[in-house]
Structure formats: C-alpha cells, structure tokens
Design a protein that fits this description.
heterodimer; A: about 425 residues; alpha/beta; ten-stranded mixed beta sheet; two-stranded antiparallel sheet; 14 strands; about 35% helix; about 20% strand; globular; B: about 80 residues; mainly alpha; about 55% helix; PP-bd_ACP (chain B); phosphopantetheine (chain B); ACP (chain B); lipid biosynthesis (chain B)
C-alpha cells in the first residue's frame, strides 16, 4: 500500500472587507479593525438591518470593464483572489500541464444580484432587455468556471454548495482531489456577493442578523453577552493547494500542510443547528482522525462563531466535548468580529487566516467582546493578536451551514 | 434626422468597445465580428440589443445572422433607422 499523498498550501489570495489582498486582510485582522459600515444605498433605508461589511477594494479598480460586465460580482471576487493566490504560489500564466490542474470554488447563494437585476430589467423593459449572459453569470458554478478558464484547469472544475460551509467544504474536497491523484494543484475556496436588499430582508426575517444599526462596527461580537446575530459581509478567499511532492519538485514556498478534513451532517433541521452540537463534534473528530492529530496538537481554532446567541455556544460545547481538557490550550479567534460573515466565502477567507496564523505564528484577535458570555470558558484571543507556540502545531478552521452541513479543515505547521 | 454612415459607425464602435472589450479603433467597416473582433454569439446578442436601443431600430434574429461584418451592421442600421 502506498502512503497517502500529503497536501500543502503554497499560495493564498483574498479580497475582503478588511483589505483587497491577503496581506492587507491579515494586517487588518492583526490591527483589530472592523470592516463593517453603514450601507449608503437608498434601498437600505427601509431595511431592518442597514449595515454590512462591504469589500475594501471595488473590483472595478482591478478588472477590465469587459470582465466587470461579463462576471457576476461573486465571480469577480473569486477571479481577483485566484489571480493573487496563483501569483503568490509562484505560478505565471497558465499551468504547464492543464490536465493536472483543478478548481474547487463555491458560493452559498450564487449570482443573486445578477438574477435580481435581470428580473428588474424584465419587469421594467420586457424580455428583450434580459441579457444573454444572465444564465452564465447567475449559475453558482460560474466563479469556479471563470477561475478554471483563467488558468486552463482541465482536471475538473467543481463548485460545492453548502451555504455557510461552502468555502471550507471546497478546501476539504480539494485536499481529497489531490490525495485521490486526480490533480497536482487545485485552486480552492469560496466567494459571496449577496449584499442586496432581498437577502438582507430574508436573513433579517429569520432573526439571524444583528440589528445594531446605531453601532455597526460593534455589531459583530461573537462570545459577547450582547451578541444579537451575524453581520453580512462579502468577498472571496482562494488557496493554492498542491501535492507536497509537486511543491517540493518546483521548490515552492509552503505556508502550511493542509493536513485533513472532517465532514458531517446534522440531519436535524434545515436552519437550526442540532442543539447538542452532535454534528459539529462528529466533524471535529473526523478532522482530527483524517489529519492524524491528537487533541494536544491543536493550538489554534479559527471558529465559525457568527455572533448568534445559540450558535456560538453550541460550537464551543462541541469543541470541548471532542478535545477534552486540551481544548483549554487552544487560542480561539472569531475573526467574523472584524470581517463579518461572508456566507459561502467565509470558510475560505478563514482558511486563509488560519494558514497565515500558522505561518506567522500569531492568532488574530476577536474584537467587540465587552463582557464575555459566562458560558464561554475557553481561551478566546481578545482585542490583540497572540503569539502561537513554536514547534509543530496544528490549527483548525470550522464552518457550518444552513442545511446542517459541518466542515472542519485541519492545517499543520511546517 | 437620419444619421450618416460615419456617425453610425462611431456609435456602433462605442457599443462594441463597451460590450466586447475591443478597442473602438479596431471597429472598422471591413472587420468581421467573429473573425476579426472576437465577438461571439452571446456578445453579438448584446451588441444587437444595445444597437436597437441606441439607434431605435429593430434587428430581428433572422437579420442578425446576415450581419457578418461591421459594414453589414452599419448598412442595416442606416436603411432601417427611424426617419
């Protein structure tokens, strides 16, 4: 029996509310900045939630007008992040052997602004005004397809969809795609561009969003006693995952090992998490087993922690259940406190954050905790970054999505 | 007042530049949409819809397939524009 292929991270890219590339995203987190702002559009006035975490650098500053015209905003974000990750990994132009390059990029909702704008056009001007590119723009695999076209990926272009677990799920499937031998390199991640009155109204009516309109920068406050829901963000994160063998052969810089992934499904409710955290615990245990980690190896968790009253607690309970007393030695960061919740993009930018935390040996902070919820007894990194220990350590990124999807990605320092 | 051929060409070139990302200087009467300007079938639909709006003409799908060069499109618009 041959040994399983190791997978490593050799490039990262991100376009986020804290910065238009991965280094500025990282710097923004270390500084403990909030990317959340009041929405200035007229349509925001009637909404119960009038703030969001808009992207820091508009795609029109980076892409050609024809790319802006042809790509849904979610695909624009993915293309920007993918170009950065590709260059960061040391690649130039297209891949040498396209049949060995894959793409795994999803989004939670797909091209929702394209769809709704096209519908507005249909109602206002009739069917002739519905653009012929509407379908290729709104389909949820569009970001993956455009990333694949950009770099000539022919090993397989896939678009996992699992609501807010999408980005992490993509990273997990990319690890498996490389292990299976189907590709040497996979561009993996997620993207979302859903800041529009319809999704905001719908999420707000689920009672899932913070309504702290008088204090938007302080609205995303995981683990704080006053947390009242998530804050919608937008953006994309893309990682270049590569077989360790392929990376070594070309002398690539390695950020971390993508050590493994754990999946599970709650099979409980379409929107509510299973209250005992059973599914989350199963995914955590699966990730540790898949990555061959013991609880004591784990020194950092980039938590899902969306700032909802029940979700934050359930996640921490599951974490304690699986890691036992080792959970107390884990530096936990809830970075959504700064960049908001990017839905299908969130697991991807948080995987970028987790990889950079291992690379720089620093856990980013959690901001906006005025009073820690007494039910949270673990070690939350608050307000300032924290140094992570030397030696070989592991870090986890977990993500959960409506539908009961649970994904935990494990990274190991190199 | 009817537009001249040069005026139609200039406006059409603006449309092709915006829709297809082709430099408007490239949009000349003898250029083929698919062969020279890389305007594929979806992009051609976008050009046609924008041209209909700009010039106030109807360009039915049956007519579109005969518009292989920029000159064909300019002539069609010139003949069919609102007086």
């Amino acid at each position: 029996m041959t040994a399983r292929k190791s997978v490593v991270v050799t490039g990262v890219g991100a376009t986020t509310p804290l910065g238009g590339d991965a280094p500025s995203f990282w710097d923004g987190m270390l500084a403990g900045r909030s990317g959340v702002r009041m929405l200035t559009e007229d349509w925001a006035e009637a909404l119960p939630v009038r703030f969001a975490a808009r992207i820091a650098v508009e795609p029109s500053e980076l892409l050609k007008p024809v790319e802006i015209r042809r790509l849904d905003r979610s695909a624009q974000f993915a293309l920007i992040a993918a170009r950065e990750a590709w260059k960061d990994a040391g690649f130039e132009g297209k891949f040498a052997d396209p049949t060995r390059l894959g793409v795994m990029v999803g989004s939670g909702i797909g091209g929702v602004t394209t769809l709704l704008d096209a519908y507005d056009n249909l109602l206002a001007k009739g069917p002739r005004a519905v653009g012929p590119r509407t379908v290729p723009m709104l389909m949820p695999n569009s970001p993956a397809a455009y990333v694949g076209l950009e770099f000539d990926a022919r090993a397989g272009v896939h678009a996992p969809v699992s609501a807010c677990a999408t980005g992490a799920e993509a990273v997990g499937h990319a690890i498996e795609m490389i292990r299976s031998g189907r590709a040497d390199v996979v561009l993996a991640g997620g993207t979302e561009a859903a800041i529009h009155p319809l999704p905001i109204a719908a999420f707000a009516n689920m009672m899932a969003m913070s309504k702290r309109n008088d204090e938007p920068e302080r609205a995303s406050r995981p683990y704080d006693v006053g947390r009242d829901g998530f804050v919608l963000g937008e953006g994309s994160g893309i990682l270049v995952l590569e077989s360790a063998e392929h990376a070594a052969a070309r002398g690539a810089r390695v950020y971390a090992e993508a050590a493994g992934v754990g999946f599970s499904a709650d099979s409980h409710d379409i929107a509510q998490p299973e209250p005992d955290g059973r599914g989350v615990a199963e995914a955590l245990a699966n990730a540790l087993a898949d990555a061959d980690l013991s609880p004591a190896d784990v020194k950092h968790l980039n938590a899902h922690a969306t700032s909802t009253p029940r979700g934050d607690i359930a996640e921490v309970l599951a974490f304690t259940k699986v890691l036992g007393s080792a959970a107390e030695d884990v530096a936990i960061s809830a970075t959504k406190s700064m960049h908001g919740h990017l839905l299908g993009g969130t697991g991807a930018i948080e995987s970028v954050a987790t990889v950079l935390a291992l690379h720089h040996r620093q856990a980013p902070p959690t901001i906006n905790i005025d009073e820690l919820d007494p039910e949270i007894t673990l070690d939350i990194v608050r307000d300032k970054p924290r140094a992570l220990p030397e030696g070989q350590i592991a870090a986890l990124n977990d993500s959960f999505g409506f539908g009961g999807h649970n994904v935990v990605v494990a990274f190991r320092s190199v | 007042m009817a537009l001249t051929q040069d005026e139609i060409l200039a406006d059409l070139a603006d449309i092709v530049e915006e829709v297809a990302g082709v430099d408007k200087e490239e949009v000349q009467l003898d250029k083929s949409f698919t062969g020279d300007l890389d305007v594929d079938s979806l992009t051609m639909v976008e050009v046609v819809v924008a041209a209909e709006e700009k010039f106030g003409v109807k360009i039915p799908d049956d007519a579109v397939k005969d518009l292989s060069t920029v000159g064909d499109a300019v002539s069609y618009i010139e003949k069919n524009q609102a007086a």
